[in-house]
Amino acid sequence: MFGEMLENVRTKAPLVHNITNYVTVNDCANIVLACGGSPIMSDDASEVEEITAICGGLNINIGTLNEDTRRAMFAAGKKSNQCGHPVVLDPVAAGASRIRTETALRLLQKVRFAIIRGNVSEIKTLALGRGTTNGVDADIADTVTEENLDHAVAFLKAFAAKAGCVVAATGAIDIAADADRAYVIRNGHPMMSRVTGTGCMLSAMTAAYAAANPETPLEAAAAAIAAMGLCGERARNRLSARDGNATYRNYIIDEVYNLDGKTLEGGAKYEVR
Amino acid sequence: MFGEMLENVRTKAPLVHNITNYVTVNDCANIVLACGGSPIMSDDASEVEEITAICGGLNINIGTLNEDTRRAMFAAGKKSNQCGHPVVLDPVAAGASRIRTETALRLLQKVRFAIIRGNVSEIKTLALGRGTTNGVDADIADTVTEENLDHAVAFLKAFAAKAGCVVAATGAIDIAADADRAYVIRNGHPMMSRVTGTGCMLSAMTAAYAAANPETPLEAAAAAIAAMGLCGERARNRLSARDGNATYRNYIIDEVYNLDGKTLEGGAKYEVR
Amino acid sequence: MFGEMLENVRTKAPLVHNITNYVTVNDCANIVLACGGSPIMSDDASEVEEITAICGGLNINIGTLNEDTRRAMFAAGKKSNQCGHPVVLDPVAAGASRIRTETALRLLQKVRFAIIRGNVSEIKTLALGRGTTNGVDADIADTVTEENLDHAVAFLKAFAAKAGCVVAATGAIDIAADADRAYVIRNGHPMMSRVTGTGCMLSAMTAAYAAANPETPLEAAAAAIAAMGLCGERARNRLSARDGNATYRNYIIDEVYNLDGKTLEGGAKYEVR
């Protein structure tokens, strides 16, 4: 199943429109290329509707939002909805400022998302309408553990039902859920948190997976998450003693470039709840 | 000839002003440094005239244009013309939105360019005043092949005559032409299209070559194109089985850093038509 | 001493707010992660006060300033002062345009900085209220050498006394000074100047060191400078014949990731004057 999701990206090579932050935008473009998609970045309100119309999916990331890009997010989101394209939301640091929380909540009202992907603190902020974060990282109090996993799964399913889309909270344990089912995924490596933008990259790749698999957004999201985690593991194994987070970033993207469906099927560690 | 172009960059170390997109800007800066130039990025209308005046060349790339950076492009372009500096245009995704097409066409009216470099769909959009693109990649119907090469060369020469500058269309086969002569260049590797910004990087490097060789813009453009393609080949040869597009990006820039005139002369594959 | 500064960053993991340029922002984020901090980038005036309030330090870099980000710099700087957080200024290319010089000088009036770090031309521009630069690089006439070192140290101490903060001018020889003492640091490698953003990265890392060592800004700045230089040396030693400035960039960040206090103590080459 996950392997098929991946191979569909390589076969269909979807164009993915990204409205994203300027911190990790280059890595987002390269990971979309690595997984088999074709990225286009544009955040100017005067053109985003035309740009998104020629694409197969849209990724909205609020990492460095400002007044101009906010306008572009709403315009592109609505247009993408009209076109029937899957739209992914990455609510970076929602909860860390009023404007981030408000923008994310208003996007949920105005745009129909296929998938929301964030860390657990960001997702809680969207679900509860308020929240706290530790900057761009999840609040430690929110961490999903084996102990609170049942509760977290139920929470995500309930929010997915309310939001009417797939919701994914990623961290040490990843969960992707719709109203009825949740994939609990245990790939990845802690060192991924020392590379800026692994979450942003995952969201961009998720948009490519969703664009290539529009009928199965839950499986598309789960497959992208497992692929990213597996590539994080495999890249970690390539590191020598003197390599650090810069080489790790490159190797993660390299692994995504080389990953095939069979390897993903063999390496994905997940259960459905 | 190409070797001399390259060595002039290393000897003169020109300052190159870049108004470019935020997706690939870091790679553009590093490739200008790699080839021997010194990059400065600035896109604020309040300062671009001062900045461009202290440089030796200007690179205008419309990859993520917005209202503010458009103003800066016109202001810097005119000032650079007054200073007698070569100006390069990279019309990224012209044809993909009204504002991109219009901005590129208006730049052609208001600024005197030394070199225009894009993929063939972008160049056709400028020449015809309208066009279609596949996002940031060339439309497959526009691809230059051995079969339509004569036609493509004639088309570029005609547009170069009309535009009054060097025009370069890069892809599997690269062509750089002025009204009378065309360099047909067959360096490069298909995997370069899986790295974001190889076109942007080439335009930035072309501006460095043009700044160091202001009397011979056609040879400067052709040399930069051959150098980029040759470095793409050499970097490809360094890749191991687990390397992907991230490592490839780094190796391409590394090869540019280490390329000398003699190696470029030996490796450049071109003919003049 | 330097080792203790470094270990405090790893232990305290300070959140560092960066208002910085879009050219080198990704490298700045990754080097803050590499040294043990946690970066958050935000330059929208509507949220920077909230963002900076949850951080432990602020880094203001004027590399690609515009009207919007200028407003954010003043708002964040004042708020960070109210919070008692150390604020670092990187006056990139001050002297190269009126708006850069004016912005840097006004920031000095309105915001209380803990540390100013730039190349010697930028620092002279701030000290004298005017200046010349060679783009983003120091003017060759300003270079600190063994011959003019006494004069440079005295100049920096005087400016530090006037500005009421630590002032660091980095180049072939680095100097970090307050009114009374100056650290003269001789780490680093000339090839670092062929990587875009080594100065920006150092400023971001300096903010992390200052946030983790708020009582000793001079030692924090000197330790960060020595660490960056030492990592530049160590990364240079890892390069093979075909590596260039792209791989060098990655290795520098990798070395920062792996550097420990003991290695820094052993490798730092400095004297106090």
Automatic annotation (TrEMBL), chains A, B, C:
<dbReference type="InterPro" id="IPR029056">
    <property type="entry name" value="Ribokinase-like"/>
</dbReference>
<comment type="pathway">
    <text>Cofactor biosynthesis; thiamine diphosphate biosynthesis; 4-methyl-5-(2-phosphoethyl)-thiazole from 5-(2-hydroxyethyl)-4-methylthiazole: step 1/1.</text>
</comment>
<keyword id="KW-0067">ATP-binding</keyword>
<feature type="binding site">
    <location>
        <position position="41"/>
    </location>
    <ligand>
        <name>substrate</name>
    </ligand>
</feature>
<comment type="similarity">
    <text>Belongs to the Thz kinase family.</text>
</comment>
<comment type="function">
    <text>Catalyzes the phosphorylation of the hydroxyl group of 4-methyl-5-beta-hydroxyethylthiazole (THZ).</text>
</comment>
<feature type="binding site">
    <location>
        <position position="170"/>
    </location>
    <ligand>
        <name>ATP</name>
    </ligand>
</feature>
<keyword id="KW-0479">Metal-binding</keyword>
<dbReference type="Pfam" id="PF02110">
    <property type="entry name" value="HK"/>
</dbReference>
<protein>
    <recommendedName>
        <fullName>Hydroxyethylthiazole kinase</fullName>
        <ecNumber>2.7.1.50</ecNumber>
    </recommendedName>
</protein>
<keyword id="KW-0784">Thiamine biosynthesis</keyword>
<keyword id="KW-0460">Magnesium</keyword>
<keyword id="KW-0418">Kinase</keyword>
<dbReference type="GO" id="GO:0004417">
    <property type="term" value="F:hydroxyethylthiazole kinase activity"/>
</dbReference>
<keyword id="KW-0808">Transferase</keyword>
<feature type="binding site">
    <location>
        <position position="117"/>
    </location>
    <ligand>
        <name>ATP</name>
    </ligand>
</feature>
<keyword id="KW-0547">Nucleotide-binding</keyword>
<feature type="binding site">
    <location>
        <position position="197"/>
    </location>
    <ligand>
        <name>substrate</name>
    </ligand>
</feature>
<dbReference type="InterPro" id="IPR000417">
    <property type="entry name" value="Hyethyz_kinase"/>
</dbReference>
